[in-house]
Design goal:
Layout (H helix, E strand, L loop, with lengths): L10 H11 L3 H30 L1 H12 L8
């Protein structure tokens, strides 16, 4: 599905956009937004990992579960 959007650009941004992509501004903006979405998700994952690493209660619980991984398994 495609949607139309009207945006306002300042002169500098418009000149850059036109020079960077020529006539297909929509495709260029779509690629930029997809890249930014991925980058935003990566930042969120890194932040969640950082918070997880700093959470001592969670780390103790995780350690307790790690110790049970081999319970009942024979080599």
């Amino acid at each position: 599905m495609k949607h139309r959007a009207t945006i306002t650009l300042d002169d500098e941004a418009h000149v850059f956009l036109t020079g960077a992509c020529g006539e297909n501004k929509s495709a260029y903006i779509n690629r930029l937004l997809i890249k930014e979405k991925r980058h935003s998700l990566e930042r969120a994952i890194l932040e969640a990992n950082r918070e997880e690493a700093e959470d001592s209660v969670y780390q103790r619980e995780l350690s307790a579960w790690d110790n049970t991984l081999d319970d009942g398994l024979s080599g």
